[in-house]
């Protein structure tokens, strides 16, 4: 995980220095952080950058633990899956068809399955459709 994952996730999550309710009402701050966040919490840009890096590392580590061979995933695809895992959570990624297909060596199928995570609160979110489309494109660049 490196600068590419930070840039991708940061761009899609957006930076908010004061906590706000997300699309389904979960208190959220910085680059989409929800753990332990209360409405009204405030952070500096530097604190948010540090939170993003630490959270990406946790999500990546969790993703790697549930994959049989994470080191064979091409770099661009890997970054797309880190972004997905950050957004949906380690548990959801580890239970996903995308993870199952990755473990079978079906990279293209895994990239396709990752697109299914386009709902928030049970409703399709155009923002998530757009994000999954961008991640899908990046993911397929690794599959070529």
UniProtKB/TrEMBL annotation:
Keyword check for Transmembrane helix: no
Keywords linked to the UniProt accession: Antimicrobial, Bacteriolytic enzyme, Glycosidase, Hydrolase
EC number: 3.2.1.17
Name of a matching Pfam family: Phage_lysozyme
Matches recorded under Gene3D superfamilies: 1.10.530.40
Similarity remark: Belongs to the glycosyl hydrolase 24 family.
Protein name: Lysozyme
Organism: Roseibium salinum
């Amino acid at each position: 995980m490196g600068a590419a994952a930070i840039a991708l996730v940061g761009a899609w999550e957006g930076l908010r220095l004061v906590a706000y309710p997300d699309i389904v009402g979960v208190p959220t701050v910085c680059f989409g952080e929800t753990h332990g966040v209360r409405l009204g919490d405030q952070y500096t840009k530097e604190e948010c950058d540090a939170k993003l890096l630490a959270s990406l590392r946790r999500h990546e580590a969790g993703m790697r633990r549930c994959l049989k061979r994470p080191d064979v995933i091409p770099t661009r695809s890997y970054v797309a899956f880190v972004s997905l895992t950050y957004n949906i959570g380690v548990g959801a990624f580890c239970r996903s068809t995308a993870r199952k297909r990755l473990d079978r060596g079906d990279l293209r199928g895994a990239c396709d399955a990752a697109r299914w995570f386009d709902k928030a609160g049970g409703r399709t979110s155009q923002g998530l459709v757009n994000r999954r489309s961008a991640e899908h494109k990046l993911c397929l660049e690794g599959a070529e």
